[in-house]
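Q: What structure does this chain adopt?
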Amino acid sequence: MKVKLQIISKLNKINQKKKNYFWNAFAGIINAAEAVILSVIVTRVTGLIDAGILSIAFSVGNLLVCIGKFGVYNYQVTDIKREFTFFDYFIFRIVTTIFMFLAVIVYCEYGILNIGYNRHKIICVMMICLIYMIESIEDVFSAYYQTSNRLDLGCKAFCLRWGGIFLSFFIGIILLRDMAISLLISLVISLIIFLLYTCIVFPKIYRSEQLNRENNYICISKLKKMFTDCFPLFLTAFLSFYVLNAPKYAIDAVLEDSIQACYGFVSMPVFVIGLLNSFIYHPELVFMADEWNSDKNALRRRIWRQIIILLLISICCFMGAALIGCPVLSWLYNTDLSLYIFELLVLQVAGSFLGIAGYLSVILTIMRCQKDLIWGYIIVALIAFFSFNTVVIGYGIKGAAIEFTLLMVLLCSIYIIILIYRWKTAVNLQKTKTI
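A:
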């Protein structure tokens, strides 16, 4: 009987692992397709200018949601010692999301006064940012689901919410021919789906972590410690998205929205490599954290195996882009992109280095060396901040693509050096303690 129960338990774990992988992959595809799907709809219904506005709106949303999420997800998932409770993480996320909202207001004011945003563009940017605010809150629940070995639940919530956004946006823009109002409808649908799903699912999964009554109250000291520990992750994520979208910000400042749309179309595949790579390693984050604490050799083998997989993915993506990239993108967005084949291929190379850098940043977070992540992006962000406008003015989007690729090469090189140094330091320290 005992053996039978063990077999059933093992089979259940295997089935759950398959569910986690499947839904993680599906959610990853949806995540990558957010801007793509909406851009395809907008380009065909309201035109290229609205597509350019949508492109910069997603860039701003992805940047400012870093404030809301504050880099806590990976930290929460790999908190195997349970230093903080779910209540701590939830309260902290509420605070950071409020700061995100304030940042959205500041950016919109900046857009009006300095870039010349009109009312339509402001509303579109605001709606996308508010949709990401909902995602910021949802993120803390998803992390809890994963620590409970139910990664699939968080992914289902994400897919269901974005499915509602896609459907409501499509119906709205077809009927109303107004992107701003359609995004407002999608925001309302997104909020309703999030609230309903969380109220139904979360109580069934949540297990009380309160050891005493004092833990039911907000602990300022814990929030401060979480802020200190996660600030490097936040700053890295914020600088990361700034660097990733720096060409778009430069184009937004000096070129037209139609050119912004074309750059957005050819730069979409940049994130495919990192996305496909995350399908494989994301469900393993908890196990990777365990290996770092108990079996570093096993983790080292896993890292090498994953990098080889990433390189193979990169080669396949580059060949696909070279053979059918422009025709497929031109058909998808109903826009002739044949003149942008060079930019497309250069950006594919950038995507390879971006994927490696992203994976190395996860490893360094597991090693609790997240503070080291800041330096790579500070260097790259400073270069981007002071040079991208000049490059775009002088060489257009071709110059933007080349500089972006060089910055990704530099970032990847910095992270490799940091990882090697920190790994050797940790191993030597472990040997010293053993002796």
